[in-house]
Amino acid sequence: MNSAELLQFVASGLQNGAVYALVALGFTLVYASTGIINFAQGEFFMLGGMLAVAGVRAGLPLPFAALASVVLTASIGLLFERVALRPRRDSGPTVLIIITIGGSMVMKSLARHAFGPNELSLPPFSPGVPIVFAGASIDRQVLWIWGLTIVAVVALTFLYSKTKLGRAMRACSLSHDAARLMGIDTARVVMISFGLAAALGALGGVAVAPLTQTAFDVGSRAGLKGFAAAILGGLGNPIAAVVGGLVLGLLESLSVAFISSTYKDAISLVVLLAVLFLRPQGLLGKSRREKV
Amino acid sequence: MARFLTPRILGRALPVVACGVLFLVPMLTDDRYLFKVLTFVGLNVIVIAGLALLFGFAGQISLGHAAFVGIGAYTCGYLTAARGVPWIVAVIAGTVLAGVGGFLLAIPSLRLKGHYLAMATLGFNEIMSVLFVELRPVTGGNDGLRGIPFASIGAWKIDTPAGNYLLVWGVAVVVLLLTANIIRTRPGRAMRALHGSELGALASGVDTGRLKTEVFALSAGIAGLAGALYASSVGFISPSTFSLEFSVLLIAMVVIGGAGSLAGPVAACALLTLLPYADALIPGLSKELIALIQDWEADISGFVMILVLLFAPGGLAALGRRLGGTSARGAGGVQ
To answer: I need a labelling partner for B178 at 20 to 30 A (CA). Which of A119, A263, B27, B54 fits?
Structure first.
């Protein structure tokens, strides 16, 4: 394998990795402010792509359709938290997990009714021939994916570190009770986290749809990869989610290069299980012992 | 007279009556479609008995039970169809292999709780889905395995729909009796203690690590048994049957039925399995209505699952207890 081929694999790894990072950020945001894993996160990814396709088909200009799909998915995320999760806020994790699993079943199934069972495609954001860089050809859409991921990460970092809402979110991730005592409306913070997570997932779904096509059933795979990325980096830390996403994307694409494409999907799952079993706190996480 | 119809006696009598009706069905009808549908119910009931034990009583979630069903089905299918192994040996092999799979998955999963365990088992299901497709020499890839022979013991072949129905339900009743017995005795109490509080169970002398592995292996083995019976009942298996959706549906059955109960999940399992085949029991239903129900099956079970958790966390079991007038004893739904 020459260096141009290797670069090609690295580029495609970073392309998938950026999408995984967006989905992983959604997992991490919700986990940080609520302590639960949202099993419907992958469906937000699916909804992002599908709603954008529906928008374009309804005659909306592409940028507007993409934006509308992200906003709409975010509202679905907010609504889901408010209607289905908040009433059982004080239950154990199993109840909340199962509610999000039920939500994911319903979203996926409703998407099939609304958009049909077939694969759909979204036009590329900026049509044109791929850009050739050091012998590797990179699709223009990949640049969009990287650009949008960077914008999302910068915006999120700003939100987290500089704004009042971000401080409230960080406070909630440390202790809900203490945050509430300090006058933070924790229910609102949780709801906004869900909205943001949905928006990030949808952004990933919209950005990758022109390259890979989309369908009603892409959510569970995307969710699983995103979760693997979040776990790989270390759950609850946004930087770790991005690192985890990129590392997972690279691992996958290099395994295609050096092992075989047959087991590409299985490799990220094996990574997930290995991290869960050997280092549940993730690559960047600190080990935390459960105290009695 | 009415004095004898106490809930306690009803609770004892109902399963016996249900069994009687089940085994009388072949004398009343020879409707092949009805037998097929009821056989599916029986197969799912076997899986649910094991999952109710693991999830409903011990409180350990598994989103990978479809994969264990698949392991049992592919083992039995491959051994009987391609290797000519006697049926009973193949069924035992499928059961044991699934149980060993469950045991091996349980050892590292012991440390995992709640959402981590859910994700690990979900990941396991996805890995097995990939393997069912890719291990072509054994599984036949996406085309699946065809020509799996019917159940047979020696020269005696069980090749009629009615015979198969009786076989599956016979096994289902044995599995239900077994699980009910486990629940009533010492391991059942240990499981409930584990569900309530792992620390509390540990402090009371329950070896929670060992208990979790054993229950997980047993539950996976029961799922494998159902899979092996499925392979020889249907004669054809393909990877999509053992997908994550099936695992999720199984969890939905236990949740809707009510955690900490065996009868509730079995009832929910029968209802949810019969739902898309309602025309087998109710002859007047139009084809369009059935097609509509089949189309909306996932939405219905997803919605019902959320609604149950929001408004009736005890599920069907709590409902039954309320109707029967007994107070809830210990079982408090999903916690």
So the answer is: B27
